[in-house]
Amino acid sequence: MKNIVLLGFMGTGKTSVGRLLARQLKRPFVDVDKMIEIACGAAISEIFQKHGEKFFREQESEMIAKAASYENAVIATGGGVVLNAENIARLRCNGVLVTLTASPEVILERTAKRTTRPLLNAPDREQTVKALLENREPLYQEADYIIDTTSGSLHQIAQKIIVLLRQGGHLRGRG
Ligand code: S3P
Question: Measured from the CB, is residue 18 less than 6 Å from ligand 1?
C-alpha cells in the first residue's frame, strides 16, 4: 500500500497524530525530522545554528527521498517540506498526502511550550507564525486531504483520517 504522508505547519499535530495513526493501522511510523537528526548526529536546532537553514533543507530533501521510497508507512514530515516542489512530487509518487491544519492561535499555543523550533525563536512569534502560514498556505492546500486539528482529541483526528482514507479507497480491509 502507498505511504500516508502527513504535511502541515508546525504544531498541527503531524508527529502525535502520525504515531497514533501508525499504531492503529499497524504500519511503521517514520518521522523525517528524526531521520535528519540521526543522519546529522545533532538536534534540528543545532543543525540550524551551526550550518544554517539551507544546509538543513538539503538534508531534509535527502531524507524525504529516502522516506518516499518506503512502502506502507505513515510518514510525518517537517512543516517546511512543502517549500521544495520536488519533495512533494517524490512523496506523492508513492503516497497519499494529508495536510493537518490548525488556527494560528492554537498553533501559537501548541508551539509555545518547546524551544526546539528554530524558525519560531523570533522576538515576535505571532507575526512570524502568521507570515510563514500566509506564505505556505497555498502549498499545504496541494494535499489530497485536509484535516483541521484545531479541536478534537488525537484519537478523533486519527479516526477522521482513517474514515477519509477508507472512503477514498486508500486503505484495504482494516487498514
Ligand atoms: C520546520 C518545521 C519543523 C522542523 C524545522 C523546520 C518548518 O518540523 O522541520 O524546525 O520549516 O516549518 P515540525 O513541523 O515537525 O515542527
Answer: no
pTM for this prediction? 0.97
Q: Is the CB of 14 under 6 A from ligand 1?
A: yes
| 151 three-class SS | coil
Each residue of 78-94: b (16+ CB within 10 Å) or e? bbbbbbbeebbebbbeb
SS3 at position 61: helix
The residue behind cell 504515531 is: 19
The domain of 96 spans: 3-167
Q: What is the pLDDT of residue 113?
A: 83
pLDDT in tens, 90-99: 999 999 999 9
State which residues of the chain have pLDDT below 50. Answer: none
Residue 175 lies in a domain: no
Count of domains for the chain = 1
Residue whose Cα lies nearest atom 8 of ligand 1: it is 78
Site to substitute for ligand 1 among 117, 137, 140, most atoms within 8 A of C-beta = 117
Residue 8 lies in a domain: yes
Q: What is the pLDDT of residue 175?
A: 57
